[in-house]
Each structure stands twice: as structure tokens, then as C-alpha cells.
Amino acid sequence: MESGQVVRFDSLVLHFYTYAGVVEALDGVNLYLKENEVLGVVGETGCGKSVTALALMGIVLPPGKIEGGQILLDYNGKQLNLLNQKQDFMRGIRGHEISMVFQEPRAYLNPVYNVEYQITEVIMVHRKQEFAKRVLDQLNEEYARRKENLLYEADPFLNRILKFNINVYKRMARNPNSRYVRFLSKVPIIRRFGKLLKKEVHKEVIGLLEDMQIADPERVAHMYPHELSGGMAQRMVIAMALACDPKVLICDEPTTNLDVTVQAQILELVSALKQRRKSSILYITHDLGVVAQLCDRVVVMYAGNAIEMADVNKIFAEPIHPYTQALLESIPGPGKPLKSIPGTVPSLINPIPGCRFHDRCRYAMDVCSEMKPQFVEVKKDHFAACFLYYSHDRRS
User: Fold this and answer.
1) What are the structural domain ranges in the chain?
2) Domain 5-112+229-322, CATH
3) DSSP, res 247
4) Other C-beta atoms lying within 10 Å of the C-beta of residue 148
5) Contact predicate 176/185, CB 8 Å
6) For the whole model, what pTM was predicted?
7) pLDDT for 103-150, tens place per residue?
């Protein structure tokens, strides 16, 4: 894993074991995401874009199974293979280091809880210790103020309660999930000071909604998912994903099913958030117009393989893989004849051997049907998986 990379996929293989057969969804995917960049992942429906994101999040469920490769994350300056970690550890990674904005927001929102509750839940799972420290500072300031203003001796009972709560929040700042803290949080006389924690979290929630450019966030915070428009629901999901300032943000076609005006607003929001929060974004889409507008680099996927990866300008100006070339030629334009890619996408159940694009490729050679091409650097920071750019000694 090179310097400046936050996530790297090395030869990731993922299969789904179904009654119809083994679906080879990912067949050795290689890609990487740099710091503070937007990497676009494009391709036809079923090419493996969303499955790649789910593998990064560690939420591939049966019958899916990762059969090989590794996913490396830059975690506190060390390379961490996410495929070797236990679920308890991954729960701490999800939402904190890596967050995901799903394609259909209403499918991932609980209809019986309001906006504030659902965002607060994310914050309390990952940032409770941080907010406990904030409240502890406030209590220490209050304790010092009472001493300075000679209020310490006027109400000794309140002083004892205040001191006791300072000790509670000290313990919470050390270990917010200890049994001692959970027990004391149920004591009625201490709940009053527990409201300080809720007040601090409430400020954070309102700040997140303001960052999402939501008008009147105090009112929206008390609304339920069914009361939100499509654009507002998507902004809420983005706010939940950003609640813990993740290092990596995955956006899985977040503008699908939204009208054109709202799509433009969401894209502007994602671009602004990248600049403000310095997050690295993995943006999954099939819209090349969105890629040209938003992304810094692009990886093109086809039938479970990453086939080309380069700077966004290079992809549009000098595509080198035959599939990428055909894909760009098929974009309609004024005065331009409409071209289509001959053939159909191969089935991922017992897929064709060799390069999975060779039966549709105008440059296909005999070796293309016999061997799978490797994903190599053809030019500076321009990668492709095609035998057109192999020397004979590298094919063997």
C-alpha cells in the first residue's frame, strides 16, 4: 500500500453460492482510493460496483463469500486487512472510519423514529466518549465557578451531587460503555445532569443538518422519514454517514430516483463536503456525466472485473481499454451517430474463460479466450487489463 492511499483492493474474489450455480461476482478486483479524492466507479448494472462497496464495509451476507484477495485500510498509520478482522472490530470501523450512503434512503431509515433520534444513535455508538469529555469540562467549570462565587458553602448537597456527576463523567470519558456508567445513568437524581450530554449531541445533530443545507433544521430534526421529500431523505442519510467524520465515504448511486434539480443539489453538496471535511469518497454510478463533473479518478468495471483506472480527464480523452472506448462511443450526442456495443454481458454463473469482454471486443486475439489479462500500469497512473498492452514475456 503506497503512501497517500487510504484503501486498496488487491485481487478481491467474491462468489455467491446459489441454487442456480456459483455466481462469480468479483473476479480479482484491483483498485485504490487516495486521500481527499473522489474515485468514480462506473459500469453496467450487475458489473460488481455495489458488491465491491459492501465488501469494503464488511457486510456481504450469505450466500455471498469472499474467497480471496485483501482489502487494506490505512488505520492509524498502519495497513489493516479488513478481511481478517472480527465483527466486533468491524462494528467500530463501520460508521466511524468508513460510512456508506445507500442507493434508496427510505429502505435504510426506521419509520418509527424521527430524524434526530436516528442521527443521535450513530453519534452515541462512536462518539459518546468525546461528548462525555465535553460535558465533563462543563461540569468542572461549573464546580470552579461555584467555588469562586462563594456558592460552594451555600448549598453543600448540590455540591456533592455535582462532584458525584463529575466522577461519573470521568468514568464515562474513560469507558463510556462500562456497566457502572450504564447503571448510574438510570438513577433519577443523575438524569438531570445526563441532559447535558443530550444537549451537546443535539447541537451536533443540528449542525450536521445545517451542513446538509436543510432549511429550518430544528423543525426537520423532529420529523419522521415519511414526512421527508426524496432529496431531504437522502440528505438525512448523508448526515448519518458523516456524523463521525469518516475517513472514507461510499456513495452508492445517491442521486438515483431523484429529479434533475435535486440531483444537481446533491452533487454540489457531495463536492462541498469533500472540500470541507477532506474525506475520500468512493462514488458509484452508471452516469458518465456525473463522473465528469464530480470525480478526480475513475475505475471502469465490467462483469466483475476492474478493467481500466486513470485520471478522469485521461479516461474521457484517451481511453485505452476496448470496453471503455466502446462505452464512450455509445454516448449519444448532437450530430453523432448512435453506436451500441455488440453482444450481451456474459452470465457470471460459469462465465466465459479468459477476458470476459473478448466475445464483444473488436480487437480480440486468440490469447483473450485462453487467459485472463492482468491489471497493469500501462502509462503513468493509467491501469488497464488488456492483452493489447502486454509484451509476450508478460503473458506467460
Assistant:
1) 5-112+229-322, 115-217, 337-395
2) 3.40.50.300
3) S
4) 9
5) no
6) 0.87
7) 888 888 999 999 999 999 999 889 888 888 988 888 888 888 877 776
